[in-house]
Amino acid sequence: MPDDSTPPILPPHIDETIRAIAQLHAEHHEKATPQQRAIDGLTSFLGRPWVICAMTVLVVGWIGFNLLSPLFGYPALDPPPFAWLEATVSVLALYMVVLILATQRHEEQLAKHRDLLTLELAILTEQKTAKVIELLEEVRRDNPLIRDRIDHEAETMAKPADPQSVLDAIKETHAKVDPAGGTTS
User: Fold this and answer.
1) Total domain count for the chain?
2) Is 185 helix (H, G, I), strand (E, B) or coil?
3) Which has fewest Cβ within 10 Å: 17, 63, 131, 176?
4) CA 23 – CA 46 distance, rounded (Å)
5) 116 to each of 24, 105, 110, 131, how far by Cα in Å?
6) Using CA atoms, how far apart are residues 15 and 18, in angstroms rounded to an integer?
7) What is the pLDDT of residues 117-135, one digit of tens each?
8) Quick one: which of 38, 20, 18, 27 has its CA closest to 109?
């Protein structure tokens, strides 16, 4: 029976890919400014489920304290309609929005790098596939055991696509489908 505690051995190309992605994330984190790291940490802290529970307890406690204190002969610190609570919640909401936007902007930089990496790998894969098709066609033509014939589709696929031409065709097609330039969903 195999030992389930040992991690599976990955082929070298998969291991290299995993390490490259981990390196991309590590470099992104290393290049973050101390302010970005602090904002990311604070956003991560505020995004935990228990924080919403704690905030709910604080708000309910504040309202309860201010409603019940006059019954015990003490003045309410923030009588209804709870202007101090409203102002505090508004300021905190503003800060949370700014924190979320700053974190989102920082994460978009990483997503942009991943998108560029994905695009480059897709283009390289397409070029390699075209080369493999070209080599297979060459072997097919040179093999005396295989009847020689012209395969127009293979000839076309053996030529790597020009990324700029593909981009232009996509833009042109989208312009025909949606002349106003909006999204087509």
Assistant:
1) 1
2) coil
3) 176
4) 27
5) 12, 17, 10, 23
6) 5
7) 888 888 888 888 989 988 9
8) 27
